[in-house]
Amino acid sequence: MTSVSETLSNTQSELERLVGDLRGLLANKELDNIPQIRQLRERLDDGIENVRDSAVRAAQEAAAQARDAARAADRYAHDEPWRVATAALAAGALVGFLLARR
């Protein structure tokens, strides 16, 4: 199973590879005098910056949600230790029962 950060990293590297290929194509010196190519380069740079910003915001939001969930679980475990212990015991008993049936 891949983590969110690995998926984000893979996506970012694929995007950067694609952008590099596009820039290589657009960097052809023969095309420098064409205004449409210059505009396309500018739009491409703006789009890349927007995508990077969005990816960073999404990763930060996911990390914040994970931290909040961990804090809530920690608070619950401290506020209700017997419920957590009972749930752990029940899960262990269920796993033991299932393994014993094999």
Automatic annotation (TrEMBL):
Keywords: Membrane, Transmembrane, Transmembrane helix
Pfam families: DUF883_C
Start and end residues of each DUF883 domain: 73-102
InterPro entries reported for this sequence: DUF883_C (IPR043605), YqjD/ElaB (IPR010279)
N-terminal signal peptide: none
A GO molecular-function annotation: ribosome binding
UniProt keyword annotation of Transmembrane helix present: yes
Origin superkingdom: Bacteria
Spans through the membrane: 82-100
Protein name: ElaB/YqjD/DUF883 family membrane-anchored ribosome-binding protein
Native species: Melaminivora alkalimesophila
Taxonomic placement: Bacteria, Pseudomonadati, Pseudomonadota, Betaproteobacteria, Burkholderiales
